[in-house]
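Example complex used in Figure S2.
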Amino acid sequence: MKGTSRGYEESVLAVFSKLGITLEELPDWNCCGSTSVIAVNKVLAMVLAARNLALAEPSGLQLLTPCPSCWLELTKANNVIKEGGKLAEKMKEALAAGGLTYKGTTTVRHLVEFLVNEVGVEKIKQYVNNQKYVGNALTGLRIAPYYGCQIVRPYAELDDGYNPQNMEKLIEALGAEVAQFELKTACCSGALMATRKNVGLEMSKQILRNTKEAKADIVVSACPLCQLNLELAQFGNSEFAGKNELPILSITQMLGLAMGIPPRELGLPRSILPGVGKRITDMQKQKAPAAIGG
Amino acid sequence: MCSSCYECTVKCPAQIKITEIMYALKRKSVREGLVTRDADVHRFYKLFTDIVCKYGRMNEMMLIMRYMMFNHPVDLALQMPVGMRMFSTGTLQIQPHKVRNQDSFNKIVQKALSLEE
Amino acid sequence: MAPRVGVYVCHCGSNIAGKVDVKAVTEMAKNLPNVVVSRDYQFMCSEPGQELIRQDIREKDLDAVVVAACSPLMHEKTFRGTCSSAGLNHYRMQMANIREHCSWVTEDPVAATKKAKAIIAGTVGKVRHLRPLAEREVPVIQSVLVVGGGIAGIQAALQCADAGYKVYLVERKQSIGGHMAMLDKTFPTLDCSACILTPKMVAVGQHPNIKLFAYSEVEGISGYAGNMKAKIRHKAAYVDFEKCNGCGICHEKCPAKVPNEFEQGRGQRRAVYTLFPQAVPNKPVIDRAACIYFKNGKCRACEKLCKRNAIDFEQQDRVEEVDVGAVILATGHQVFDAKRMPQYGYGKYPDVYTSLEFERMVNASGFSQGKVRTSEGKEPESIAIIHCTGSRDQRYNVYCSEVCCMYSLKFAHLLHEHTNARIYNFYIDMRCVGKGYEEFYDRLLNEGVRFVRGKVAGISREARDASERGKLIVQAEDTLTGVIRRIPVDMVILANGLEARADAGEVGRLFGISRNKAGFFIEQHPKLNPFGTSNNCIFIAGTCAGPKDIPYTVSQASAAASGAITLLSRGTALLEAVGAHINSDLCSKCLTCVSICPYQAISVDGEPQLVAVDETLCHGCGTCAAACPAGAIEADNFNDEQILHEIEGLFSWEEAPEKKTEAELVESGAPTK
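Predicted assembly (1084 residues):
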């Protein structure tokens, strides 16, 4: 996530450092191929994902990924290897050509579920309540949990596929209100925003409209591409201008704000929508003067 | 047009892996040349794949530029404000990031391509 | 004297002859030890085929017969009959399965022929040492146990009772009637369900031959075919049914209110309650969990108000044993839990109803007094009925529930009568197979119901424009026009399917009846005996055997009753003669066999201790014989000598001696090897 999701990456590093969890960036990781490579070449797509699995295996550490699409492709590749068969053999052969082997022991985790199940809501609460920067608290704000599609489908591990609750748990742990909305697992359109812009815009806008109906102040997204798309759908669009603009935060950006990490360190300035950090501070001033410590 | 949201796969009462079939259809249509000049979503996928194969990592600027420059110049022009914004926030990389072990990576990619059915 | 064996190889048309070289096999059989005649024929089970066997038995003085053909499950009975009619004890006939075990499962004809030869040689080896056995005749108790008081149990009970037999009808709820009592109207005649059911219920209540045990459950069953003891637990109702006259004052005045299960949780009942107004027996029971007295010692209003002193808070469960000759299982079904399909919003949106909830809503004595209203009390302007909820789905129930299309049409009709709403039926196929069903569908088409052929993908509240605001949006593809539809409605009714009861496994275990993958009881033969089971005195009827409509249920119930009546009318039953015998000289009283017997047929008693097999309970399975460390147990016609000869036959057929004349075979002292 060195490119368009740079902000997300910064927030991940900042939050995990505060939580006291060491993240080792997978040395020499490569792009997993997401939904694009598999539309051109199946073996290549699986091999790209498998290379990351193979690189992670020797360390014995869990492979944590903040992106649902990567998580999906990595899990898919892992399943193929575990089940065996022709494709698995081809994948192993390709990896061997580059001097890599993979036995199938790497566990893949997604950031959202990791935070809830490994780190735990209780631990996160501690950091929220202990934070010094009272001005960053999220109390009184309504946050809409937007999961998107690939984190709950087709593998809905460790959360319900139709009505996931992990993000709600995190939002509540941070002291904010959950703005529940219908389309929380609907697709933002993914790559269609670039290739079929008219379709993509409509899909993303529908989601934004639905969160507005739920009176959300902020939308938190589990996926960097969803975050980008929901921002793009608002950029330069009069429907979402001014007061109607919805700041889109990534999970760790939201966590970081509640933990008292300055917005700059969370990559907020890198959002497509200018002035997200200030917008949120204004919201807080309006909604929860008490939280700001008067 | 499939965005791989997997709704169909999860909802299918016969448990057919429809999304995977969509991917297969996409691959097939490219292989058999069943694409038109206007419906050029496949170009996007191919460009994506080419960039990943070359560098091991994605470079959005390269992808968007190559995809839109000559085929959708108007759209590209309309995207300028967004591009400028991304440039100014440091999220648009001009220099592509690369994988370090190029040699090993290339060998893997070549082998994978040769094993495709 | 050396046994004289006849071998009969059946072609079974091309089933065997198409794969196995039957001529070669028959030839080989001639050379097997003790075989005096070996024939082949197109269809051994046919009359001419059987006559061949009979003639040889008589003219060639055969002592044992091998029929190499299909599985004994098919024709063992046939050929046993053939032998005994010719004067040969039918336990000296054994079938060699060269069809299901050979021709049907082997690809290579050469290999199949070799295998057939081996099987026959083995069977010949054994059959030479078979002993004649005789079946025991036991009296059959002249009463029937019917488990379950829904329409299936009611019909079966009435049929048996009218035929003059004593019936014990056990129903776990406090009233009979089952699911049919919950329905409003029945398709396709639109008869009021209670109106056609209650006469039968009353007939049960009044029948001199039927002992109705309501609020009771069968706890145990023991014994053997035709002679069973059933242990029935009469649950404590805290109401003395003898004293109670059903006046109803107790449940009128009871202050405790809880959700009413009969109304599918949408209405309320009291802690002391009857199931519905036409209940049989019309006696209330007290729900311990809801009763104020049982919870904190106060109230007792019912006791004070009851003029007959019928309330008895000290009542205990009572266990009773009855003797029965046959059992009919009619335990019914449960409906698919719609919460398992979250995409339909059941439990999330208040205006999504299941089929039974709707039945109760539209029923005049239901929670809504027959008025069709949304949860906000308004008349719905548009209603969607969704077929195949939970059925025909690999993720839930793979099978079709058979009744949902018809009851969905019925709902559409009732809605057409009760409201002015636009009605949509979303279906995959229209399954209207019964008498008058397709005509009912035609009627609906003329009533202006809108049919959309497409399984509903999901129900959502996401409104995309003003017309959708506040509505439930049904998303489905109209496959006949190829358009994806978003239809806003006020109410959704899910046609959830039928499935086996959650505790069907326990009932199956109790009675020893197996269930299929979906959990329904398995019939003796899916085509030719859908009401019998592997146990010849236990029958099944109704939805416990699979989803079905009321006419099929009633037919099956009467069929099950006829099975029971047939068993009982003979007065006696023949017990299979094959059993196990313990040689007390070899028995070391380790008691391994006692615990291992699946039928609890072995017991130890007497002074000095004797371990013995109860011949009536023994099924001849051979488990004890295999388990006995001392080799003290012998299973009839499966003793060590017989089995070893079969094994030797299997391996030594290739070394069969040269073709001998019949005279030589008879004169030679037929080698035992």
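Chain B has two domains: 1-34, 36-114. Residues 1-34 of chain B form one domain.
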